[in-house]
Task: inverse folding
């Protein structure tokens, strides 16, 4: 038999429903404790307990000196799949298998659904990557440059997943950040990977997405992750 919810849990549900219906928007500050207490007909103590519950569930976040805000993606924790507890060697291999299986289709959806603002953002990222590569002659690369390049590639691939406008893929985009980080913190990859060719593949993928060429975007996405696997398999 399920235990019944106490008052603070029920009030937490009411606040959550206000977020779901759009009364309190993402990233928006909630009314004060007193205002919430008055509108929900409970004490400030109960409001405080309800807010704590929603903070623990990653629905709300408290910014000291400012107030309580709805999180960017309500309900999504920092590690929703528990991947922090998977050994790195196992996680790295499984992340790349995941990318090989899913990312080509994600690229196809990105070409189908990307907004004009997202395309403009992706163009800027490819320009930054080309500028970085133009300053180097080849491996071995400067460590600081690789770190800067890595951050740009993380933003690029995260953007591809967000371009799908599919809430599932958007919420899984952190997995891509992890996968790219694994690549660039692998010693062999850092020392030998051809950043010039890698950048060209990103530019070609951008062009396919910008031209709404879904099949070419899917194919380029597949080729990109397969190239990753080839380099890492030699480690």
Result:
């Amino acid at each position: 038999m399920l235990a019944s919810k106490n008052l603070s849990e029920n009030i937490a549900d009411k606040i959550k429903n206000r977020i779901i219906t759009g009364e309190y928007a993402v990233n928006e500050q909630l009314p004060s404790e007193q205002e919430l207490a008055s509108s929900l007909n409970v004490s400030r103590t109960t409001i405080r307990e309800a807010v704590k519950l929603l903070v623990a569930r990653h629905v709300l976040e408290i910014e000291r000196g400012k107030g309580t805000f709805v999180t960017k993606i309500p309900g999504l924790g920092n590690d929703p799949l528990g991947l922090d507890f998977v050994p790195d060697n196992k996680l790295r291999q499984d992340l790349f298998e995941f990318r090989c299986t899913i990312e080509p289709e994600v690229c196809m959806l990105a070409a189908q659904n990307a907004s004009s603002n997202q395309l403009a953002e992706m163009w800027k990222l490819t320009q930054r990557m080309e500028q970085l590569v133009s300053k180097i002659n080849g491996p071995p690369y400067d460590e600081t440059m690789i770190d800067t390049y890595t951050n740009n590639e993380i933003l690029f691939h995260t953007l591809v997943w967000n371009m799908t406008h599919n809430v599932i893929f958007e919420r899984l985009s952190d997995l891509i950040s992890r996968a790219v980080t694994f690549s660039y913190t692998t010693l062999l990859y850092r020392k030998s990977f051809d950043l010039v060719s890698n950048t060209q593949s990103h530019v070609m993928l951008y062009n396919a997405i910008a031209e709404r060429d879904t099949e070419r975007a899917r194919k380029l996405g597949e080729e990109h992750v397969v190239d990753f696997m080839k380099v890492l398999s030699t480690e």
Summary: The first helix runs from residue 7 to 20.
